[in-house]
């Protein structure tokens, strides 16, 4: 004997999705708790670095839809990157421009690290998530005392050099972005095998297939947060903290003492100079470092 079934449905009221359940015997709607997901608008068109996204292709449309849905509903995480961007983007944007890298690549940094000095299980570090060998290849100093993967300006310059090289080899900024995840050699192998040279026509690994769409989704949301129901005030944003710069040309045996001499404490020194990886700084002959000392907020 079959029991009466319950058919779930979703009603959109005033922009909010409300789940209801309908008893198949009585056809009466029984209101349940309101859904927390926000019903967002899907863009009519999209581009990455000036290169059009073919939203007319069904799987392309659905892949972007997935990443928009995920990130539009990751409320705390997405709000945090919007707040952090107010501090990080003014550093990243002029460096991208200096190297001729499209501004959209700042969103690549967002999906790589959430704009914090993250550490991956594989050993990638910093906002731009460089592995040690790749970091050194692009002139980042990495040793027991200094790790410039944690230096936002220098790591952004290294990322730009990588991306310019990848674009020259792969032919498009979209493929250059994909290679930041899948590697230039890995993407090239798939281009040669599949005889297709457009990212949206290639079958890649799950992670690389989602990669550019994650960038596109964060670009869309962060360019117009209110459209995606992120109601942040200017006062909610993390401020740019003014600093004075100190040139260091000789070793510092005790960074805690150095911090006190500069009018701050050890914690603040390390927060503003995360590339310093020890309690001291070893400076070789002829080498110099620029240390940021905040002038407000502490």
Automatic annotation (TrEMBL):
InterPro entries per UniProt: Lysozyme-like_dom_sf, Transglycosylase_SLT_dom_1
Gene3D superfamilies, per database record: 1.10.530.10
SUPFAM superfamilies: Lysozyme-like
UniProt cross-references to Pfam families, sorted A to Z: SLT
Start and end residues of each Transglycosylase SLT domain: 97-198
Family according to the record: Belongs to the transglycosylase Slt family.
Highest taxon of the lineage: Bacteria
Name of the protein described by the UniProt record: Murein transglycosylase
CDD domains named among the record's database cross-references: MltD-like
């Amino acid at each position: 004997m079959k029991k009466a079934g319950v058919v779930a449905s979703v009603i959109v009221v005033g922009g909010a999705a409300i789940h209801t359940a309908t008893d198949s015997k009585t056809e009466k709607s029984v209101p349940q708790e309101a859904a927390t997901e926000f019903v967002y608008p899907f863009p009519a068109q999209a581009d990455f670095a000036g290169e059009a996204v073919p939203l007319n292709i069904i799987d392309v449309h659905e892949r972007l839809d997935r990443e928009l849905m995920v990130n539009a509903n990751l409320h705390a995480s997405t709000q945090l990157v919007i707040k952090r961007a107010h501090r990080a983007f003014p550093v990243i944007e002029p460096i991208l421009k200096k190297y001729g890298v499209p501004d959209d690549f700042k969103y690549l940094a967002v999906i790589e690290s959430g704009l914090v000095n993250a550490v991956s299980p594989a050993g990638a570090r910093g906002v731009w998530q460089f592995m040690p060998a790749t970091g050194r290849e692009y002139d980042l100093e990495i040793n027991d005392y200094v790790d410039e993967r944690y230096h936002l300006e220098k790591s952004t310059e290294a990322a730009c050099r990588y991306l310019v090289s990848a674009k020259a080899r792969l032919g498009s900024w979209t493929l250059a972005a994909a290679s930041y995840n899948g590697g230039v050699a890995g993407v090239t192998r798939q281009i040669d095998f599949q005889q297709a040279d457009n990212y949206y026509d290639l079958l890649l690994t799950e992670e690389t297939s989602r990669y550019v769409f994650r960038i596109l989704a964060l670009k869309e949301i962060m360019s117009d947060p209110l459209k995606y129901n992120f109601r942040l005030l200017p006062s909610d944003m993390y401020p740019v903290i003014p600093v004075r710069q100190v040139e260091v040309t000789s070793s510092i045996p005790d960074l805690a003492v150095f911090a006190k001499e500069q009018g701050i404490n050890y914690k603040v020194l390390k927060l503003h100079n995360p590339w310093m990886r020890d309690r001291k700084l070893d400076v070789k002959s002829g080498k110099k470092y620029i240390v940021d000392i905040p002038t407000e907020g502490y």
